[in-house]
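Recap from last week: sequence in, structure out.
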Amino acid sequence: MEVECYDKTGAEVYDMVVRQIIQDLQITRAIKDLRVYVDPREPVFIIVIIYEKTAPIVKIGDFTELDKEADELFIRIKDETYLPDLLALLWELEGRNNVHQSSRYEIIVDDPHHDIKNMIIHDPEEELRKKIYDALFRIIPEGLRVVEHYSEGNIIALTASDETIKDEWLAKTNEIIQEMKEDQNKYKIK
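Predicted structure tokens:
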């Protein structure tokens, strides 16, 4: 993690703020690299995060067996880990009155209207991205609400100001992103 600022004391304070927020949101281990550029004289605040890859998505077929009989879909649970997520999604899609949990290991859906066999039940990357965005918007100084967003793969960058975002700030954001990508490539095992 690196904070770049003309004011050494300001950089130290922002370093502490960033570390506290990512610790509070429990995403410290998920962050590979984080860079902040801040210049209150402009005012501009740039933050770029590269996060670790996450576990793969979990589909309904990964932990259940499905049987369709007449107008009912029987779902047999092999692993209860994602059962709460499955129930919430089924209630949302099919209606709570059409979803019955006859036991811990069986759910019955009356007359299903959606293609359930390929449903994504849990997406770890999406959850991590939400936490990262939450952190970013907590980290950005309060008055800087004009935000330019960049996201590619496992990189998220925000350029913020209290005025129209200037091209040179976006160029600085891109420069930071390219530096971080080069640094990541240096450390890859070949």
